[in-house]
Amino acid sequence: MGRILRPLISGGPYRALAFYVGELVLGIVAFVLLVVGWVLTLVFCITPLVVPLLIGLRIGVGLLAQAEAALVRGLLGVSVHPPVSSPAVGFWNRGLAVLRDPAFWKQQAHLLAAAPIALIPITVTYWALELVALPVWHRWADSTDVIGFIDVDSVSESLPFAAAGLVLLVVIAHLLGPYTAFSRRLGHRLLSGEPGRVLSPEERRARRLQALTIDALISTAIVIALVVIWALTSTRYFWPVWPLLALTLVVGIPGWVALVLERREISRLTLGSKAIAIQIGISAILAGFLVAVWAITTSGYFWPIWPILALVFVAVAHGAIVYARREHQIERLEESRAAAVDVQESELLRIERDLHDGAQARLVALGMSIGMAEEKLRTDPEGAQLLLAEARTDARQALEELRDLARGIRPPILTDRGLEAAIGALVTRAPLRVSLTVELEERPPAGVETAAYFVVAEALANAIKHSGATRVAISIRKIDDDLVAQVTDDGRGGADASGGGLAGLDQRVRALDGTLRVASPPGGPTTVRADLPCA
Amino acid sequence: MRVVIAEDLALLRDGLSRLLRDNGFEVVAAVEDGKALQRVIATEKPDVAIVDIRLPPTFRDEGVRAALEARRRTPETAILVVSQYVEQTYATELLADGRGGVGYLLKDRIMDVTEFVDAVRRVAEGGTALDPEVVAQLFSRRRDGPLERLTPRELEVLGLMAEGRSNAGIAQALVLTVGAVEKHVASILGKLDLPPSESDHRRVLAVLTYLQEDPER
């Protein structure tokens, strides 16, 4: 008996019900959002408005998914954290990035599934509670209920139903366990933060071509089928012209996109921008479509002129934007080149000075000591010995200075073994807990390697010296064509990005056309992140 | 004692050969790259090979790789790696098999002829010779562990032990009696919870293993 009733006194079923009620509410909100969002997106899909719409939709879906994840964490006890996708660079790319983000689709799937899944336990529980409440209902209200085929119109008649309701509640309490296990798995699969595998450019290309082939095959099949049906039914009016026209859009637009992506020379004609080439092509296809519709229907007033003008206007505006951005990019490249020259120049200056004041001076002293020792060798052997000992000290110090200098230019182990080993060596020397993840398939260019090394070294040194941190996490990854080096500590924050070491790093990173970001709110944590282009 | 040298710079190769010959070693071969080194170790089976880290063709860590490979194939040949820089990573790799008969020194140390010759002999006889800089690197990462409990003198003794010196060598370096050194050593081993050992070499290896352990674990 105790075992049967145990679920009723444990918190599990109540938490589960609370979870499903929350899910139901979120599911309904999500449904409305998705319907409105996608309708708007589809309506505006040939205008630039589609990008802010997609981003808005992404944010909405993201927030709802966060709320769902909070429910899963709080009430089902599974640690689920929806991934935060890194924003893409460039206007159209941002929209594309939303569509390419697997987390976006998974989260939508979960949001759509939420309401139906939640509805089942809620409805059943509602029924059971209704049955249990029957006697109470009949005590005060003098009415008849129909449960199934049976009329219930008195307290005594309702008692068995109340008992059945109680049994049903116990059964529900038992079934909620496995049911929430299913929800847990679903939440873990669809909401958790394991980022989907990033496809390589070759894989993306293969998929694109495959999709296009399937598209073309299906369209051809539909056309043939329609024409055959038309021929068999032998109506005079060639009605398949309409689905045919629609299919030219369906095949033509993806076909053009694929063509532009395959053939570089096409985008070379349009400011070198693939996006413009794609847009012009799609505009032309749409214009052709509209003209064809006009020709088939009225052939009277040439109404397609207005949408065509609009398309031309949009294309020109897009071209202007791309052109302006290109100019800006050139400006930035010039700046970063100037910064690179500056960095190099000041580094060379420093090295020259170090050599001059350090090793060179020591070697001069060494030479003098040896010369004097040579003279004293016969007359004063003991004095000669002293001088030789001095010479040896000078030689050793010169070596030490040269070694430090070389290490500052590029640590030897970085040359020998690459980033992972070099940073690994830093980490083993660090007197606090450091976790290091390096995900690189090949060695990046030497300049990038050195910059990444010094970013990590400096950030780690700062964490050790100033932050009071106990843990540091270092990650070095390849994201698209960038090497991203990130150092996070759990210290007190408040690092000054414009001061000393960090400013030097910023210059070093910018010289490679990269970006250095430092986030260090008072109270921590401090994150230093460098994005270094490898191409 | 028979020695092989692997060093790509003729200036250093010849200088080192002369220095060793003057001190009673027999330099059986002086080669320029890792492949040649492995070959002469296999054929000549010298007592010790003195190897530069950076060797042709890549001038990266060929020397360490060749030395490790030679050590695997010809365990009886001791290896002394010399370099313009020290990396604890390489020291760890060289010491990984826990057998002794390895050394890792900065080229600067060659200038101190007596000590260098002493280190070559020690390594050839199955001992170790670690550069004080490597030892300092090892110390720095265990700053807040049981090393804190050692007195400054004991830390000095431990450092010299880690470099691979015998009790007599430590006594000489610190101007102490051998008896005093022995007392310090016993106290250090006690504080670090290491077993006392009769042989100098084995004791050194225990100390090095201790220093290389991950302090987090």
* Count of individual beta strands of chain B: 6
Radius of gyration of chain A: 36 Å
General shape of chain A: flat
Strand content of chain A: 5-15%
Helical amount of chain B? 40-55%
CA-CA gap between termini of chain A: 70 Å
The run of helices and strands of chain B is: EHEHEHEHEHEHHHHH
Low-confidence stretches of chain A: none
Total count of strands of chain A:
7
Number of helices of chain B: 10
Helix-strand sequence of chain A = HHHHHEEHHHHHHHHHEHEEHEE
Largest sheet of chain A: 5 strands, mixed
Strand order of the largest sheet of chain B: 2-1-3-4-5-6
Query: Which pair of protein chains has the largest interface, and what are the residue counts?
Result: A-B, 21 and 21 residues
Shape of chain B: globular
Query: Helical element count of chain A?
Result: 16
What Rg of chain B do the Cα atoms give? Answer: 17 Å
Briefly note the structural class of the backbone of chain B: alpha/beta
Q: What share of residues of chain A is helical? A: over 70%
Kindly state the mean pLDDT of chain A as a whole number? Answer: 82
List low-pLDDT spans of chain B: none
What would your notes on this structure say?
The complex is a heterodimer of chains A (535) and B (217). Chain A is built from 16 helices and 7 strands. With 535 residues, chain A is of the alpha+beta class. In chain A, strand 6 (515-519) and strand 7 (526-533) form a beta hairpin. The radius of gyration of chain A is 36 Å and the shape is flat. The mean pLDDT of chain A is 82. Chain B is an alpha/beta fold and 217 residues long. Chain B has 10 helices and 6 strands; from the N terminus they run E-H-E-H-E-H-E-H-E-H-E-H-H-H-H-H. Chain A binds chain B through residues 392, 395-396, 399-400, 403, 406-407, 412-413, 415-417, 421, 424-425, 428-431, 433, and chain B through 53-54, 59-61, 84-85, 87-89, 106-108, 111-112, 137, 140-141, 143-144, 216.
